[in-house]
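Re: the 218-residue chain
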Amino acid sequence: MSPRSKDVALINRNQLSVRERLLIAAKYCFLEEDYHRVSTRKIAEEASTTIAMIRYYFGNKEGLYQEMIKKQIEPVMDAFKALNDGPLPDNLKELFSAYYSTMVPNPEFPILMMKTLSLKQGPSRNFIIKNVVIPFQRLFFQLIERQQQQGKIDADYDPQLLEISAFSLMVMPMLARPMLEEKLGKPADLNFYLTLATHNSQLLSRGCLPSAIAEKDL
């Protein structure tokens, strides 16, 4: 049973509070439609409740959206906080693996993040930038700076461009998960993504080796 089917079953059996049902219904409504096309009536119907309950718990659609994003972002915030508070990862593989380990159990988040950041849908853009984008940038730049100082990455590479490359390698496989699973003929589970983390980190790291080391390897 898919995560959505399980959530819908819980809603239909009234095994969740009204507030929880509204948050789940909002998540799927905003995943399927543009923010401005989702009505509070639609969300209330999906949650088997009334519009009055949205006003009671969240004030309005914007308040519900922001609370839904906060709930989705919590595991990601916790993961980045742990990485920022702990020792700096030794290599890109650890950073990639930490990202996938957080995202695989929360597959909706990358889609919501893209819709909010890139398409500017929904009112939580600054919240995501502050709690996800900036912590990731901080970690990445520290890691790249250290690897450049250690001679593992060519000092001529622009850290900002490297960040864009790494971000693409990390995010796209999550956004394209249905297509990947169709190609693989099986679910893209955590083991697959951890293998991909090793592959992508090696691909990026070896492509950024100082020229003298790269020529020696060849």
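Residues 61-85 form the longest helix (25 residues).
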